[in-house]
Design brief:
Elements: E1 3-7, H1 12-23, E2 27-31, H2 40-47, E3 56-59, H3 66-75, E4 80-83, H4 90-95, H5 97-117, E5 122-128, H6 152-171, E6 174-180, E7 183-184, H7 193-202, E8 206-210, E9 216-217, E10 220-221, H8 222-238, E11 243-248, E12 254-255, H9 256-267, E13 272-276, H10 291-297, H11 305-319
Parallel strand pairs: 1-2, 1-4, 2-3, 4-5, 5-6, 6-11, 7-10, 8-13
Antiparallel strand pairs: 9-12
Helix pairs in contact: 1-8, 3-5, 5-6, 7-9, 7-11, 9-11
């Protein structure tokens, strides 16, 4: 039985990962500070079914608190880490860039320092497709130059990739950086478009649509992401001298207009559109080349966008009280 530390483990992706690792017979330690970026009751609901599981431990701490992070490492024999904790979102990072720097960079370095002190060598780390900015060549490849971020959030994720490489070189950490492409599905954060649009359409309220609807995203269903994470964790466990950056996407971009139409079909209801100008920091498209992830870890996403949206809408109808 292995012990996995999941930072941000009460959130959307982290709570799904905890469920998966527990189901496979592992121990899970979760760090989450339950901040008010969105309603903390949503995270409480994500974790409540695991609180009485003897193989599950929840630590309500902030990764910016180095002493508390060190305590968690001291009290638990951690084998592997999935580092998801971060301030998320492009637009909010423009409004509060210092906070994003403190959490995403200083907080992450606290995790790396605790790993060094307590001799934990394996980490899978959440990066983001936002590091690609408005890269002209598609699909986006891990070898593309990503030195031209267009938001503070993207800049912090690029900085994380660079800093983990330092710890790989100096201290022998095994690292996989995962560039996630627009993850959606059950438990998705309420500020993200699919969740927000579903809610507003059901309430007969207009949805804010930035631009003409031709921007596109490589939407990735959460269970496919979890499969990629677990395969990455296994890879760093079983191999030495690892430092890799991998795209995790579906490699099938969907336009904003197509996304809205798919939600309308799943709900059986038309959206009221409120057209607005493009927002600073938004990219025109994302499109993952997933060849490397397929070859290295056997990543193979299975969920069509239509099926993923239907799954989310069915879940949302049963859980909408959390988001109202």
């Amino acid at each position: 039985m292995k012990t996995y530390l999941i930072t941000g483990g009460a959130g959307f992706i982290g709570s799904h990962l905890a469920d998966r690792l527990l189901a496979e017979g592992n121990k899970v330690v979760v760090i989450d500070n339950f901040n008010n970026f969105y309603n903390p009751k949503i995270k409480e609901n994500n974790v409540k079914h695991n609180l009485n599981n003897p193989n599950y431990k929840l630590e309500r701490i902030d990764i910016r608190n180095g002493e508390e992070v060190d305590r968690v490492f001291a009290e638990n024999k951690i084998d592997n880490i999935m580092h998801l904790a971060a301030m998320a979102g492009v637009r909010p990072s423009i409004e509060n860039p210092v906070l994003y720097q403190e959490v995403n960079c200083v907080g992450s370095q606290n995790i790396l320092e605790a790993m060094k002190k307590h001799n934990v060598k394996n980490i899978v780390f959440a990066s983001s497709s936002s590091v690609y900015g408005n890269t002209k060549t598609v699909p986006f490849k891990e070898t593309d130059i990503v030195d031209f971020a267009i938001s503070p959030y993207a800049a912090t994720k690029k900085a994380n990739e660079v800093m983990t490489h330092v710890y790989h070189k100096l201290f022998g950490f095994n690292v996989i950086m995962l560039r996630f492409f627009t993850v959606y599905g059950e438990r998705q954060r309420p500020d993200l478009a699919i969740n927000k649009f579903t809610r507003l359409i059901m309430e007969d309220k207009p949805i804010p649509v930035f631009g003409d609807g031709t921007t596109s995203r490589d939407y990735t269903y959460v269970k496919d992401i979890i499969d990629g994470i677990t395969k990455s964790l296994k890879y760093v466990e079983e191999n030495e001298n690892v430092y890799e950056i991998l795209n995790l996407g579906e490699s099938e971009p969907v336009t904003l207009n197509e996304m809205i139409e798919t939600i309308e079909q799943a709900l059986g209801k038309k959206a009221i559109i409120n057209r607005m100008p493009m927002q600073p920091g938004d990219v025109n498209r994302t499109y993952a080349d997933i060849t490397k992830a397929k070859n290295l870890i056997g990543y193979n996403p299975q969920t069509s966008f239509k099926q993923g949206i239907e799954n989310f809408v069915n879940w949302y109808k049963e859980n909408k009280k959390l988001y109202i």
